[in-house]
Amino acid sequence: MSGSSSTRENMAAPICNCEEKCVIFISKTPKNPNRRFFGCPYFNFQENMLYCDYFMWEDDFIAYQTTMVELEQTNKERDVINSDMGVKVNQFESDMEHKINVLERDIEVMKFQSESQMKRRNWKKYVGIVVLLVVALVIVFCIWKHTKLFK
């Protein structure tokens, strides 16, 4: 970078370590002739002026910016997917809660029906036992009455 270079302002540029907007220089070195790079705006400005030595090739910066735009787009797409997933999860939870409530209600109805059927069965048993006792008493009474008549 000690070779000569020219500068040009650029609207989309990185910020150097001095927190200044970088400028574009054009390399005049034999290894990278006419290759553009970003550098501190104070680079080679004055002999005694301090600068931060920030350096980035323009094509590397463009590639970095492209990657960042792609990442941002990917993040937006992921956010949309996550939002859709959130809506679907909420709907699923709501559906499951409704189904659970229906099942719990059905269980309560079945318990009530089962208890009612058991009560009816028990009542029928008791009625049957009472009828048998009454019939047995009538038979005993008839036998007693019949035996008393013949004596």
Entry summary:
The protein is α+β, with helices and mostly antiparallel strands and about 150 residues long. It has one helix at about 60-150, and strands at about 5-10, 25, 35-40, 55.
Structure explained in plain terms:
The protein is built from one helix and four strands; from the N terminus they run ββββα. With 151 residues, it is α+β, with helices and mostly antiparallel strands. The protein has a four-stranded antiparallel beta sheet with strand order 1-2-3-4.
SSE map:
Layout (H helix, E strand, L loop, with lengths): L5 E3 L14 E4 L9 E4 L15 E3 H92 L2
Antiparallel strand pairs: 1-2, 2-3, 3-4
Helical content, roughly?
55-70%
Structural class: alpha+beta
Q: Kindly report the average pLDDT value.
A: 84
Order of helices and strands: EEEEH
Largest sheet: 4 strands, antiparallel
Order of strands, widest sheet: 1-2-3-4
Poorly predicted runs? 1-10
Distance between termini? 147 Å
The overall strand count is: 4
